[in-house]
Amino acid sequence: MKPDTSRWRDSASYDYFDDLSVEGLAWECLRRDETYQDHYQSLVKAGSDADPLPREVEQRWGLRFRRAAISLRC
After folding, report:
1. Is residue 47 part of a domain?
2. Does residue 25 form part of some domain?
3. pLDDT for 7-60, tens place per residue?
């Protein structure tokens, strides 16, 4: 599904970005990626969009990491 870009110049449309977590910002970027959108649509058509996604898909799009995450906060 393509995001609605009709109001992209309206700064109020992006106010919620100020409160996003790192994960939320990453998702906003990923969901706008046309290659990701196409890949996800192919999974939906194939009926492969169930939880959990195939490991290869999770790794390709950064939805799964090779090792546990560490906190960078001090």
Report:
1. yes
2. yes
3. 778 888 788 888 888 888 888 888 888 998 888 888 888 887 666 777 888 888
What is the domain extent for residue 44? 21-60
pTM of the model: 0.59
Tally of domains in the chain: 1
Instruction: Provide DSSP, 1-69.
Output: -----TTTT-GGGGGGGGG--HHHHHHHHHHT-HHHHHHHHHHHHHT--SSSPPHHHHHHTTSS-SS--
Residue 2 lies in a domain: no
